[in-house]
Amino acid sequence: MALILITNDDGYASKGLRTLVEVAKEFGEVVVVAPDGPRSATSHAITMNTPLRLHHYHTDDDGTRYFRTNGTPCDCVKLGLRVVLKDRPADLVLSGINHGSNSSVSLIYSGTMGAAVEATLSHVPAIGFSLLDYHPDADFTAARHYVRLILQEMLRHPFTDEASLNVNIPNVPLEAIKGVKVTRQAKGYWREEMVERTDPYGGKYYWLTGRLEITDDGEDTCEWALQHNYVSVQPVQNDFTHHAIIPQLKFLEEI
Amino acid sequence: MALILITNDDGYASKGLRTLVEVAKEFGEVVVVAPDGPRSATSHAITMNTPLRLHHYHTDDDGTRYFRTNGTPCDCVKLGLRVVLKDRPADLVLSGINHGSNSSVSLIYSGTMGAAVEATLSHVPAIGFSLLDYHPDADFTAARHYVRLILQEMLRHPFTDEASLNVNIPNVPLEAIKGVKVTRQAKGYWREEMVERTDPYGGKYYWLTGRLEITDDGEDTCEWALQHNYVSVQPVQNDFTHHAIIPQLKFLEEI
User: Fold this and answer.
1) Interface check A95 vs B, CB under 8 A
2) What is the CATH number of domain A2-186+218-254?
3) Could you confirm whether domain B2-185+217-241 is CATH 3.40.1210.10?
């Protein structure tokens, strides 16, 4: 029986979280520590200047415990491992299922994947799951199927804590999904549009919006896989060094 | 004359920001867009569910403009490039000088470096500077010297937008600094202690604290450099794929 800590960035009430808990229970003991509201795009943020609250809000008939907190997804992992599990070793941290894509550079801003990376820093293997549908009542039928298959495989094979997995699931019916591709992050960027508005008092404000532009036509990327109806599984590191550039910067050691 | 956008995560009123602006002015036209208060440990977080405000709060005699916003350091870069500079191409984004270290895994949580990585996604070269002193009135004499030298070199050499630079400066007098080392991220983790307290109404809350544990005795790391009184310059990527692990995960394509 595996011990599995689950969190997300859409908040404790989201359908994606409920779905992930249901599937994870097939594999072991589950504990949930989730944000008390949406924390999309909070990346690896942690809470240092505000006290963290932790509220045990529900227990299932089978004993599964649910906690919510005012913190970020990373805080949830820290609170889960240290306070709730009291350093009892977790076998796996799962994050999601996110309502919306975390492909390409969206990974960088993702609270879902922030939590997964955080877990690997504590040497706990971790997987973040995302469905390419932002709707709060999205259909998780296909996602549920692939979450189950991936958990089966990853618990059976020796699992690495060197990288977390960023799993993105296309928003198509189960029978349209062609399988799984192991991918790299597609190069791209968000082309922002700052929508300017004026408040009733005459003050200007901006809504950050935009669209993801992909500048990468590789066939080994998350974007390629998703566009071709494959589930994308991407290993994500927690060493952010650009190792290949180190030799080119050696001239700085002469200053 | 270079066009330089400056931000930070300690907020618009910090001494580190003022110091960085003073040095950067020697190299070109400077525009400041900074958070309206501390945003430490906000990583790559962006603001999607709250409107962003942007207030032009000061102009220097030489015309340098200063803006502050309720957003994160990443939001500052987006607002700076899109709204303030109106897509006029910036030559460089600088972030800092942070009051405190961003070595080892602190890089992952760093708002200072979140802003720098954000800039490289828009193909603008970027450098984050951090001094290993958390004090609000820290002595930036040595930092100022090395910021100047690094800017001189990086504006002279063809500069990459493939990686931002994470520059950490030891907290010792200028004459004690031995030079610059180009480094990789030292492996480590934050050993958290969740300090538990009780509020006047009987409710529990937690302060997230802890200490950085380094599990890496390599002599090519940021930690080694800083402990030996070198300035650490580290290239940081915006592709978070763990490329080396991709072949080991290919079995997942069989499910």
Assistant:
1) no
2) 3.40.1210.10
3) yes
Quote the CA–CA distance of B16 and B129 in Å, as a whole number: 9
Give the contacts of B67 (CB within 8 A, at least 6 positions apart). B31, B32, B33, B34, B54, B55, B56, B57, B79, B80, B84
Using a CB–CB cutoff of 8 Å, tell me whether A159 touches chain B: no
Which residues in chain B have Cβ-Cβ distances shorter than 8 Å to A48? 40-41, 208
Residue A108 touches partner B, C-beta closer than 8 Å? yes
Global confidence as pTM: 0.96
Task: Bin A231: left if φ > 0, else alpha if -120 < ψ < 50, else beta.
Answer: beta
Cα dist. B158→A254, B24, B116, B152, B154 in Å? 17, 18, 18, 12, 7
Give whole-number Cα distances, A90 to A85, A127, A188, in Å.
8, 13, 35
As a whole number of angstroms, the distance between CA A238 and CA A57 comes to 32
Contact assessment for residue B190 and residue B214, using Cβ atoms and an 8 Å cutoff? no
Per domain, the residue ranges of chain A are: 2-186+218-254
Per-residue pLDDT of chain A (255 residues; tens, 9 = 90+): 899 999 999 999 999 999 999 999 999 999 999 999 999 999 999 999 899 999 999 999 999 999 999 999 999 999 999 999 998 999 999 999 999 999 999 999 999 999 999 999 999 999 999 999 999 999 999 999 999 999 999 998 877 888 999 999 999 999 999 999 999 999 999 988 899 999 999 999 999 999 999 999 999 999 999 999 999 999 999 999 999 999 999 999 998
Nearest CA distance, B22 vs chain A (angstrom): 21
What is the ipTM for the molecules in this complex?
A: 0.94
Alpha-carbon span B42 to A75, nearest angstrom? 12
